[in-house]
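#struct-help
A.M.: can someone run this one for me? Single chain, 189 residues.
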Amino acid sequence: MTQQDRLDKLAQRIIDEKVTPELAEAATQLVMGEGNAAADIVFIGEAPGATEDKLGRPFVGAAGKFLDEMLASIDLKREDVYITNIVKYRPPGNRDPLPDEIEAFKPFLMEQLDIIEPKLTIFLGRHAMNVFLPSLKISQAHGRAFRRDGRVYMPLFHPAAALYNGGMRDTLLEDFSGIPLVVQQLTTS
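D.P.: on it. Structure tokens below:
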């Protein structure tokens, strides 16, 4: 069974086990993730937004367009990486996911990471980071790699931050420019 087959089975389990039924009922569909199921890099956001819910794909709205631009800045495309969210259904009204919703999805996210086996897991925004690295502040941790529980994580500001704050754009692009070096170091170590 391929890694993609295993990810597809995991998505079906989320549906069959009725994980967060209230979220599922309010959402259009499950947004599991997309990209290379054997990627070296996984990007994790918080939860799907309206466009993602409609299309069933993560990071396809305005923030996703900037994510694509940042990927291109380091010679990568969506097909080279895997992109997902902690919570796989859009919360109503684009509200933040509740702690129990995050906890309900966390085992499935961990299984996603176990299947993909990325060298580097990148958090897009403090909400995603806080699930794994709760003691860190994104303003201090962004762009730095952290090793925890046998995995390597790198928090970044959420791409949407650049849409509201032009100065964040340069910070995000600068942080992104360090990703290839981290992956190279992980590949050779």
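A.M.: thanks! The beta strands are 34-35, 41-45, 82-85, 120-124, 146-148, 151-156.
D.P.: also worth noting: The mean pLDDT is 96.
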